[in-house]
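R.M. (postdoc): so does anyone remember the format we settled on? I'll just put the C-alpha cells first.
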C-alpha cells in the first residue's frame, strides 16, 4: 500500500492560503487541483462510493439548512482545536451543534 499524507497536503499554504481558516469560497471558481485535493483517495482504487457520498451529503445539507438553523453549542470549543493523537481530523472535545427547527 502507498499512503498519501492527505492531511498535510490539504493544510499546505503552498496550495491553500490560510489552510486552517474555514473558507469554502476557495472552491467557488470550480478549479480543484486533483493532485493535491484528494479526500477520497486517488488512482484506480479510489473510493467506489465517492460520488454517491457527495450527492447524499448535499441532499442532507440542503434539507438541514432548509428546515433548521444550525448553531454551535456551548460545549464546542471556539476556535476549534484538532486532536493531535489521531490519524483522522477530529475536534478536541467534539464539535457540537444545536439544531433548531425553523418556523416556515
Amino acid at each position: 500500500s502507498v499512503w498519501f499524507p492527505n492531511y498535510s497536503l490539504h493544510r499546505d499554504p503552498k496550495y491553500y492560503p490560510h489552510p486552517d481558516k474555514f473558507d469554502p469560497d476557495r472552491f467557488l471558481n470550480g478549479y480543484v487541483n486533483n493532485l493535491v485535493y484528494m479526500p477520497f483517495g486517488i488512482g484506480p482504487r479510489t473510493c467506489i462510493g465517492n460520488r454517491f457520498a457527495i450527492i447524499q451529503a448535499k441532499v442532507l445539507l440542503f434539507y438541514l439548512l432548509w428546515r433548521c438553523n444550525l448553531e454551535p453549542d456551548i460545549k464546542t470549543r471556539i476556535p476549534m482545536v484538532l486532536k493531535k493523537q489521531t490519524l483522522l481530523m477530529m475536534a478536541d472535545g467534539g464539535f457540537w451543534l444545536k439544531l433548531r427547527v425553523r418556523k416556515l
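R.M.: ...and that's the designed sequence above, right after the C-alpha cells. Also worth knowing: The chain has a mean pLDDT of 85. The longest strand covers residues 68-72.
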